[in-house]
Amino acid sequence: MSDEQTIYIGPQDDLTNVRERLERIPARRVTLVIPSQTLLRTLIAWRNLYARAQELGKEVLIISSDPQVRSVAQGAKFKVTSLEELQQSTFERRQARKAALIGQQFGGYRLTRQLGGGSIGDVYLGEHVDLGTKAAIKVLRSHIDEVAFQNGVRRIARLIHPNIVRTVESGVKDNMFFLVMDYVPHGTLKQRHSNDKTLPLITVVEYVKLVAAALQEAHDHNVLLGNVRPENMLVDDNNEVLLTGFDTVLMESAKRGNISIGQYTAPEQAKGNILPASDQYALAAIVYEWLSGKPPVAFSPSENDADKAKRLAETFPTPLRTLVPALSQKIEDVVTKALAKDPKQRFASVKAFATALEQANLPSGETKPPKLVGQRFGNYDLTSVLGAYPNNAKM
Q: N or C terminus of the chain with fewer C-beta within 10 Å?
């Protein structure tokens, strides 16, 4: 059982409510997060609460953005900080931790520099101490149960696909879990197109085909990414796109509700219910942004997760052709279907979405031929496509 716990105080909680909540929890170190609209504003109330905390043998930290609340609590001898100060100190600790890891050895690899980071951990470039080969080492920041970690790693390691970044090793160093993955050297699609407001449709269709193939492979193995975004789409030496970010399955909660709601989050995922269709929605949201230059639902910095979840459920995106008149109605229909609020109204699979998008991009009346390469006709195995007859050609 954890010796630390956080209590979020509501605007209507009075001294009695807070004291009872403090008494019920077993943790010795407690953080009380106090809103600006609080009933706890008198010095006597805070002194009574401090006295009870001392009787219970608890160390209490008060976090509030309200200067008056902080001043009164500090007058009652509580340790006090603001959310902004806490975030700054947390950031500084993380930066110091990152710098301290450079040069250390994780498994057979020595960390040489940081490549990136996310909500779960930080990614470093590692060089094998004997072979000199390179790998991406992800050092997890979040606390993960060891059994959950091992089970999650086994699930990730089963994902063998040309468009999925392989996880080849895992381990623990100084109580830090880490993953060793193939190093994909040419950055992300987010970085590649950082200066592009929109992308050509043919480029989008190709990207979707590759990413959807990776997602379908994961879904076929009952693995949900839940974090589809351009930052997790890497580019290799052959200009192929590889998907990463599957370490989200290592989190103890299968719903991974601790991941913040972003502009690609599906409405049902924002409510804590992640499905294969949620990954399809996220990919469709990225397509919408690539084509129009805008996310389907845009958030303001002041919105919290509850506000975002409500807007995702209720706000419908502007029709694509209103923003990009040159697009065909077929393209708009495909993207709109994949962005349906109800996951049951989306395509049956992410592969079906990618196929529909590709078909919608073909010239009118033309359909994509069946994939016959590798099949046997008579005594011959088909090895490649040499060409095609027009629909009206006479044989």
A: C
pLDDT of 357 strictly over 80? yes
Tokens 């040499």 belong to 386
Residue 144 has a CB neighbour count (10 Å cut-off) of 18
Spatial separation of the C-alpha atoms in residues 6 and 103, rounded to whole Å: 35
17/33 Cα distance (integer angstroms): 14
Among residues 19, 51, 81, which one ends one of the domains? Answer: 81
First to last CA, the chain: 76
Q: Answer for the pair 82, 64: CB distance below 8 angstroms, yes or no.
A: yes
pLDDT tens column, 76-118: 999 888 766 765 665 566 666 666 788 889 999 999 998 887 6
Let me know whether 178 and 208 are in one domain: no
Specify whether 126 is located in the same domain as 229.
no
Q: Is residue 365 part of a domain?
A: no
CA atoms within 13 A on the CB side of 359: 13
In this structure, what are the phi and psi dihedrals at residue 54, rounded to the nearest 5 degrees? -65, -40
Pairing of strands 121-128, 134-140: antiparallel
306-341 pLDDT tens trace:
888 899 999 999 999 999 999 999 999 999 999 999
Our count of domains for the chain comes to 3
